[in-house]
Structure formats: structure tokens, C-alpha cells
Amino acid sequence: MSPPPWQGLALHGQYRGALRQLILHFKHGGRPALAFLLAGMLLDAAACLPLPDAVLSIPQHRDRLRQRGYNQAHELAVALGLLLSLPVRPGLLRRPAATPHQIGLTAAQRQRNAAGSFRAADVRGLHLWLVDDIITTGSTLRAASTELLRAGAARVDVLALARTPRP
Q1: What confidence tens digit (pLDDT) does each residue in 71-85 have?
Q2: pTM of this prediction?
Q3: pLDDT score of 87 more than 60
Q4: Non-local CB neighbours of 27 within 8 Å, separated by 6+ positions
Q5: Higher model confidence: residue 114 or residue 162?
Q6: Contact call for residues 1 and 146 (beta carbons, < 8 A)
Q7: By C-alpha distance, which of 148, 92, 136 is closest to 111?
Q8: Is 157:126 a contact under the CB 8 Å cutoff?
Q9: What one-character-per-residue DSSP string does the chain give?
Q10: What is the mean pLDDT of residues 10-32?
Q11: pLDDT band at 127, cuts 50/70/90?
Q12: Are 133 and 79 in contact (CB under 8 A)?
């Protein structure tokens, strides 16, 4: 696979053990209040990155948002923005069409599923931090970063709480 389109990457840890349980409670357990605790972990991981012009998250399609009630990545981005006094700009990236869940898909299927699924606003010259909760294959972040760069972003850095362990 080709190099990722983002310039910097900050991760807190591997998706296992206590971190996995915490993320699962946050993401599927209806616990959006955990965002500030988790954003503190992201803040520590992001110390290696230059501060951006704005923070945004991987958007959810409105149907998925209705099902869960909140976008966990957006909650993380908002908490991170508040901790650093940075603007959070969710309107810069949107997901106009619903895509199937990524759970259980192979890396190739995930890449096809995510490709072309995002639309970016005019982000010319902006340095952006793109926030998500978990990186599995990187397909979603790759597609979103590619779209932001296509729309003129000067730099995109990716921040995630965890990466799934590789076999």
C-alpha cells in the first residue's frame, strides 16, 4: 500500500486491555462524557505535532448519527479543541452518503468502502488535525485525508486513541 496522505500521526496506544474497554464504553456504551478523559490521552500523544489551525473529526452519515445518538470522534475533537483553545470545524468535512459498517470487512473491502465517501469544504492553506477513535486499516482516515488535501489543506495530521493490533 502507498504511504498515507497525512503528514503526522499521533496515537495513544493499542486497542486492547483497559484502553479497549474504555473506548467501547465511550463508543457503544452511551458514555460521551468520557470524551474529556480520552481527549487528555490524545493531547499527550499529540505533543509531537505542531498545533493546527483547526480540529475536525471523521464525520458520520446522518443515519448512523441518529442510530448512536452522537459521533464519538466529534466528541473527542470538541474536547481536544476545548483543552487547547483551538477551533473545532466539523463543517469542513462531511459524509454525504451512508456506507456499510466496516466491522468484519477485509482491508481491501474497507478501502473500497471508504474511497470517495467524503466531501470537503474549501480548506485552502489550513493545517488540520483529523480525529478518530480507532485505526484498523487506516482506510477511512486515508480517504478523509485525501479529500481534505484535494480541497486545498496545507497539512493534515491524524490523531487517534488506538490502533488495532496487527497479527
Answers
A1: 999 999 999 999 999
A2: 0.88
A3: yes
A4: 72, 133
A5: 162
A6: no
A7: 136
A8: no
A9: -PPPS-SEEEEEEESSHHHHHHHHHHHHTT-GGGHHHHHHHHHHHGGGS---SEEEE----HHHHHHHSS-HHHHHHHHHHHHHT--B-GGGEE--S-----TT--HHHHHHHHTT--EE---TT-EEEEEEEEESSSHHHHHHHHHHHHTT-SEEEEEEEEEPPP-
A10: 94
A11: very high
A12: no
Q: Which domains does the chain have, with CATH numbers?
A: 8-96+105-163 (3.40.50)
> What residue has cell string 473529526?
57
pLDDT band (50, 70, 90) for residue 62 = confident
Residues whose CB is less than 8 angstroms from the CB of residue 33 and which lie 6 or more positions away in sequence, other chains included: none
Q: Which residue has the cell 487528555?
A: 40
Plot region of 81 (φ>0 → left; ψ -120 to 50 → alpha; else → beta):
alpha
Radius of gyration of the chain (CA): 15
Residue of 89, 8, 78, 76 whose CA lies nearest to 39: 76
Average pLDDT, the chain: 89
